[in-house]
């Protein structure tokens, strides 16, 4: 074996002369260089965001570089070398990062004593734990596979070269020279120098004993950041080296510096805000509401804006970001970034169109994360499918492709300072989500807006709390129309510096709604009267099948009205068309329109209805739904033109089993009490009435912060590095229809084109156990024709979407 490999390479192109990027020596140098570049560009701001003392910077730098050097030492073994050269499907006794840890910390090897001469115990542990976690596949459950013995080529000249360069870079003493091949076997009877199971178990037991050294919160934060940035360095090295091929044609330092030095300017924000104003026929010198100015002026690192729908929260957020861009201009050296996070891909798309897409700022500065990738898929250096595929994946090659896609899209964010994305992209960091960790360098240069936080489930809200606790100096703006008191108390507990700002009083106190319960007969009578007047009706059902049934009845009853149904069971591309049609219908004066929708209407629809009909639902959901009623009424509306609009809140079907689903029975019972309290006011109600009455029935129980910290494995995992869950278990799963999969295959698309097409065709269906048995394509399960039907006419754009076929 002349050279040790870190990556596979095109043997038809290079033969037996591997290119630089595939060599273990060069890849180790590249990762170390990426570590050094990351720490120099964002190290200090990262420490500052985490509220870690600047005087630990040098220690932080050494730990990160040591992590980079140690990561791939274990690749110098016979199983890995076979996998990247002649036997890609070989069963490896141990993964390479596990071997790296065994080598560096085993008392039977000389490396621990060598490193300990200059590195303190916790520094050594931090570096090794970071290295062992760089593929997010090491914890107490990590065990050897059933496989033949492997040989670690410690005496190989390439291995010795890496040790010498590592020693020079970290200012260590000369590395051990009297090295010989190390044989690791599965059992003692296999005749190895050490046995995999016993050695690994001893190491894991030692790690558990060493957890006490990281009881301090600052130690945990530093360790987590080392692991995260170490992963990023490895990704950058793989991508950029493969693109350059020869070490003379690429520079990790130039890539990291060039990417992370890109930023937004105050002028960019002026253009975004000016574009928004022009679209609404406002003069460039328009004056924001006092509420918006108060949000913008907030100097607290955590601002909480609670305001009703239509009060201008989004504009307030950009004004806030513009102020932080000015404040941090000198500190961040011009590389200010904004992550604008919303709960769903539907809401991100509409927001991106409204504020960023046509604002006039350089398109290269903007990203809608679920639709853009800035690096070609083929430019990523692949180790082998086993290295990135999850252990349980049915299709290892496809799962590895998904991993490469995540790397690409996240690396694109390094040079994209305005990112409109889902909240998962940021809060997934707390669960070691792949894309979120890869985005860490960009995130540390930025400010973050989390909109519609009332829509977070307990898992996601817990991640938000831990994120805010451990990054107390990162500027964050939280926005919502309503929030349970228990959650607000949890926010105040983790961040006493929270600056709450209420919505504009004149908007909040404006009487907009007449809320009441209604029977079926009353509902249909009100709908008919509204249609006769050419009005707009929003009818929200809690379940898709209920929405489809109501839609069918409305179409048969009201031929003169535009009737649409809108929910998540439409393919993404069809849903976008439906969204635009619905918005346009509601803008036409004097023409009746009925929209039957599900919960998607709570966040992603900027429309104003004359009549709201809704199933009883949790209070925050009802407040959001009512925010789509009489939305255009403002304090500037002349008094003679002001009208209140009816909100009919209907009981759940009596004969439906588990009718409260997808909500809890307790939530529905509380909402009924809230509705009765509104009715007892015996007057038209305002958004302030909705929120103040909500406070009377708000959940007072204390949010389980300890449980949230445990789930946030980015910080709590310590030496254990596995992905967790970003959201709680959902009721739906995104799939690709069999017909769409076949059509995409026939187009022979690759790279970004294929990923974008797959994204545009994905559709949500209720989850069932059998889904987990379906094949995958592009990361999505493929729904067989005999399992799922899809109702949609490509010409008329009518249809009710995906449904399970009856058995």
Summarize the structure.
With 807 residues, the protein is α/β, with parallel strands linked by helices. The chain contains 33 helices and 22 strands.
Describe the model.
The chain is of the alpha/beta class and 807 residues long. The protein is built from 33 helices and 22 strands. The strands form five sheets. A seven-stranded parallel beta sheet has the order 6-7-5-8-9-4-10. A six-stranded parallel beta sheet has the order 11-16-15-12-14-13, sandwiched between helices. β8, α21 (458-470) and β9 (476-480) form a beta-alpha-beta unit. The longest helix is centred in the first third of the chain and has 28 residues, at 217-244. Mean pLDDT is 88; it is low at 367-389 and 391-401.
Question: What is the strand and helix layout of this fold?
Answer:
Elements: H1 11-14, H2 24-49, H3 57-70, H4 78-83, H5 96-105, H6 111-116, H7 121-132, E1 150-152, H8 157-170, E2 182-185, E3 194-195, H9 196-210, H10 217-244, H11 252-260, H12 266-279, H13 290-297, E4 302-306, H14 313-327, E5 337-342, H15 345-357, E6 366-368, H16 385-388, H17 396-413, E7 418-422, H18 423-427, H19 434-438, H20 440-444, E8 446-450, H21 458-470, E9 476-480, H22 485-494, E10 499-502, H23 505-508, E11 513-517, H24 520-532, E12 536-540, H25 544-557, E13 562-566, H26 572-587, E14 593-597, E15 611-615, H27 619-626, E16 645-650, H28 665-680, H29 687-697, H30 705-711, H31 713-716, E17 732-737, H32 738-746, H33 751-761, E18 763-766, E19 776-777, E20 780-783, E21 788-791, E22 801-804
Parallel strand pairs: 2-3, 4-9, 4-10, 5-7, 5-8, 6-7, 8-9, 11-16, 12-14, 12-15, 13-14, 15-16, 17-20
Antiparallel strand pairs: 1-2, 17-18, 19-20, 21-22
């Amino acid at each position: 074996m002349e050279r040790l490999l870190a990556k596979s390479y095109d043997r038809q192109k290079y033969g037996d002369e591997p290119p630089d990027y595939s060599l273990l020596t060069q890849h180790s140098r590249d990762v170390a260089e990426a570590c050094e570049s990351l720490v120099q560009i964002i190290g200090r701001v990262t420490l500052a965001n985490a509220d870690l003392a600047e005087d630990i910077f040098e220690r932080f730098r050494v730990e990160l570089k040591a992590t980079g050097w140690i990561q791939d030492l274990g690749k110098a073994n016979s199983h890995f070398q076979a996998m990247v050269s002649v036997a890609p499907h070989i069963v490896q006794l141990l993964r390479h990062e596990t071997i790296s840890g065994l080598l560096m910390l085993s008392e039977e090897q000389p490396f621990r004593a060598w490193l300990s001469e200059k590195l303190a115990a916790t520094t050594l542990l931090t570096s090794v734990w970071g290295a062992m976690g760089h593929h997010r596949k090491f914890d107490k459950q990590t065990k050897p596979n059933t496989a033949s013995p492997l040989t670690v080529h410690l005496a190989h000249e390439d291995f010795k070269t890496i040790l010498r360069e590592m020693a020079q870079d970290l200012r260590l003493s000369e590395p051990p020279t009297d090295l010989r091949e190390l044989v690791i076997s599965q059992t003692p009877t296999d005749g190895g120098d050490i046995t995999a199971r016993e050695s690994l178990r001893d190491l894991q037991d030692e790690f558990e004993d060493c957890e006490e050294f990281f009881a301090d919160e600052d130690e945990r934060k530093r360790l987590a950041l080392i692991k995260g940035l170490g992963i990023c360095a490895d990704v950058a090295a793989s991508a950029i080296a493969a693109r350059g091929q020869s070490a003379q044609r690429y520079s990790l330092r130039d890539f990291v510096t060039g990417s992370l030095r890109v930023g937004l300017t105050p002028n960019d924000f002026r253009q975004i805000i000016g574009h928004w104003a022009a679209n609404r026929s406002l003069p460039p010198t328009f004056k924001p509401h006092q509420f918006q100015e108060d949000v913008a002026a907030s100097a607290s690192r955590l601002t909480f804006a609670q305001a009703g729908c239509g009060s201008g929260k989004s504009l307030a957020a950009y004004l806030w970001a513009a102020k932080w861009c000015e404040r941090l201009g000198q500190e961040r050296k011009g590389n200010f970034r904004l992550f604008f996070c919303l709960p769903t891909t539907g809401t991100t798309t509409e927001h991106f169109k409204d504020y960023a897409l046509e604002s006039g700022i350089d398109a290269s500065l903007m990203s809608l994360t679920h639709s853009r990738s800035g690096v070609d898929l083929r430019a990523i250096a692949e180790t082998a499918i086993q290295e990135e595929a999850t252990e349980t994946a049915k299709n290892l090659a496809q799962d590895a492709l998904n991993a490469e896609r995540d790397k690409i899209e996240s690396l694109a964010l390094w040079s994209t300072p305005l990112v409109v994305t889902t909240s998962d992209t940021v809060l997934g960091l707390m669960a070691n989500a792949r894309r979120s960790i890869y985005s860490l360098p960009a995130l540390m240069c930025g400010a973050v807006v989390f909109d519609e936080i009332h829509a977070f489930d307990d898992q996601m809200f817990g991640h938000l709390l831990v994120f805010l606790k451990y990054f107390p100096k990162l500027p964050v703006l939280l926005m919502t129309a309503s929030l349970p008191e228990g959650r607000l108390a949890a926010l105040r507990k983790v961040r006493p510096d929270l600056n709450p700002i209420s919505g504009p009083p004149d908007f909040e106190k404006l009487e907009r709604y007449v809320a009441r319960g209604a029977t079926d007969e009353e509902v249909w009578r009100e709908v008919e009267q509204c249609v006769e007047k050419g009005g707009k009706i929003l009818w929200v059902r809690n379940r898709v099948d209920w929405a489809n049934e109501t839609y069918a009845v409305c179409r048969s009853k009201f031929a003169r009205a535009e009737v649409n149904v809108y929910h998540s069971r439409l393919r993404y591309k069809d849903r976008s068309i439906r969204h635009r049609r619905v918005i346009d219908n509601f803008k036409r004066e004097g023409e009746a329109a009925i929209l039957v929708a599900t919960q998607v209407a709570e966040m992603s629809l900027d429309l104003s209805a004359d009549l709201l009909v809704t199933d009883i639902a949790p209070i925050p959901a009802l407040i959001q739904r009512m925010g789509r009623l009489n939305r255009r009424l403002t304090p500037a509306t002349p008094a003679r033109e002001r009208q209140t609009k009816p909100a009919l809140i209907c009981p759940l079907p009596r004969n439906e089993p588990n009718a409260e689903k997808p909500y809890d029975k307790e939530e529905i019972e509380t909402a009924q009490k809230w509705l009765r309290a509104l009715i007892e006011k015996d007057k038209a109600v305002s958004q302030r009435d909705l929120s103040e009455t909500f406070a009377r029935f708000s959940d007072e129980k204390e949010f389980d912060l300890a449980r949230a910290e445990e789930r946030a494995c980015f910080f709590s995992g310590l030496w254990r590095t596995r992905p967790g869950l970003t959201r709680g278990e959902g009721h739906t799963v995104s799939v690709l229809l069999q017909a769409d999969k076949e059509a995409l295959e026939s187009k022979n698309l690759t790279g970004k084109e294929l990923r974008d097409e797959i994204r545009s065709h994905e559709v949500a269906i209720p989850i069932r156990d059998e889904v987990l048995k379906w094949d995958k394509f592009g990361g999505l399960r493929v729904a067989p024709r005999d399992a799922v039907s899809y109702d949609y006419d490509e010409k008329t754009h009518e249809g009710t979407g995906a449904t399970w076929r009856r058995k």
